[in-house]
């Protein structure tokens, strides 16, 4: 299982960012996928998850209404559209395959005030 997240960077509060995760080594289209994040000194938390076909999504309370998770099964790619980002969204974002608890290398998102 390989999960490679990208798209992180520094953005001003109120701005937008789009993360991507390319997956390989397993059948992407039959797996629930998720994004988690970890801020310095804090525990990891679920940001969002998405069903195999993309029709069912779930979000952490802190990102509801601002973030959108999506997937392209033809491209084995998971996305996280982040809008109206806040300083509290700063952290390392990880692409996760929950079925095997597989975590990719994260991508750092820094939100400046």
Mind explaining what this structure looks like?
- With 113 residues, the chain is mainly β.
- Helices cover 0% and strands 52% of the residues.
- The protein is built from no helices and eleven strands.
- A hairpin with a 4-residue loop joins strand 7 and strand 8.
- The model has no long low-confidence stretch (mean pLDDT 97).
How are the SSEs ordered, and which strands pair?
Elements (H helix, E strand, L loop, with lengths): L1 E5 L2 E4 L4 E8 L8 E6 L6 E6 L6 E3 L7 E6 L4 E6 L8 E7 L4 E2 L3 E6 L1
β-strand number: 11
Shape: globular
Number of helices: 0
SSE pattern: EEEEEEEEEEE
Q: Strand share of the residues? A: over 45%
Q: Spans with pLDDT under 50 lasting ≥5 residues?
A: none
Look at the structure and give the mean pLDDT. 97
Q: Helical proportion? A: under 10%
Distance N to C terminus: 37 Å
Sheet/helix structural class: mainly beta
What integer value in Å does the Rg equal?
A: 13 Å
Largest sheet: number of strands, sense, barrel closure: 7 strands, mixed
